Amino acid sequence: MNDSNKHIDKKKENIWNLPNAISLYRLLSFPFLLYLIFAGNESLFATLLCINLASDAIDGIIARTFKLQTEFGARLDSMADWGTYILAFVGIYNFKMPDHGSDFWLLYPFIGLIVFYNIFSFLKFRRLPSLHMYSAKLGGYFQGIYFFGLFSYGYYAPIFFFAMIWGWLSSIEEIIILVYLKELRSNVKGLYWVLKEARSGQ
User: Can you tell me the distance from the alpha carbon of 95 to that of 169, in angstroms, rounded to the nearest whole number?
Assistant: First the structure.
């Protein structure tokens, strides 16, 4: 069964696997990282969040390589991603906002679009999306590079602009897909594949 085009049979899912454990770790680390922000421990916060960002890439690679992708895992990973975005935004706002100068406003539409498509998905499908588009995966890498560079070397405008604009475009793609889909599913790859599937009548 092609998990990008059809539902994964939940009865056959084995949710006890390494990628899901990594996603669960990211979720469970949320309160501690939030505490570090308000405690003003910038160094430890940045280190642990970078580990979370790296683990997000690692769990996806492991899941695809060893065919451990599950519907439960896709949803858990999306929840962990959502938590990571919240932590990154709050951390940047508290520790690095002045470094961005007048450019900081670019973060607001980025976060706003993410909030919008999650609310839209919940209202339309009664659950949060777990599309895992290619553009979103690439965006996560770009945003991770921006975050790592910001806390390690300082603010660099071109990387910030690129990461934010890519994030806007990826979020708009996700919104279009959510509007188009009649039933929510995971791992759709992107708008091109959704339209190709519709044209082929699958």
Answer: 26
Global pTM value: 0.86
With respect to residue 78, please indicate whether it lies within any of the assigned structural domains.
yes
Distances in Å between the Cα of 93 and the Cα atoms of 42, 86, 107, 108, 142 are 12, 11, 10, 11, 19
The two structure tokens encoding residue 114: 């993410």
Contacts of residue 80, Cβ cutoff 8 Å, sequence gap at least 6: 23, 24, 26, 27, 52, 56
What total number of domains does the chain contain? 1
Q: What tens digit of pLDDT does each residue of 11-52 get?
A: 567 788 999 999 999 999 999 999 999 999 999 999 999 999
Assigned domain for 63 exists: yes
| Residue 83 structural domain | 10-200
Can you tell me the distance from the alpha carbon of 143 to that of 8, in angstroms, rounded to the nearest whole number?
Answer: 30
- 3 falls within a domain: no
Domain holding 178: CATH number?
Answer: 1.20.120
Query: Of 45, 107, 111, 51, which Cα lies nearest the Cα of 82?
Result: 111
Q: How far is CA 29 from CA 7, 128, 143, 185, 187, in A?
A: 30, 20, 20, 27, 25
Q: Would residue 152 count as lying in a domain?
A: yes
Cα of first residue to Cα of last residue in the chain, in angstroms, is: 13
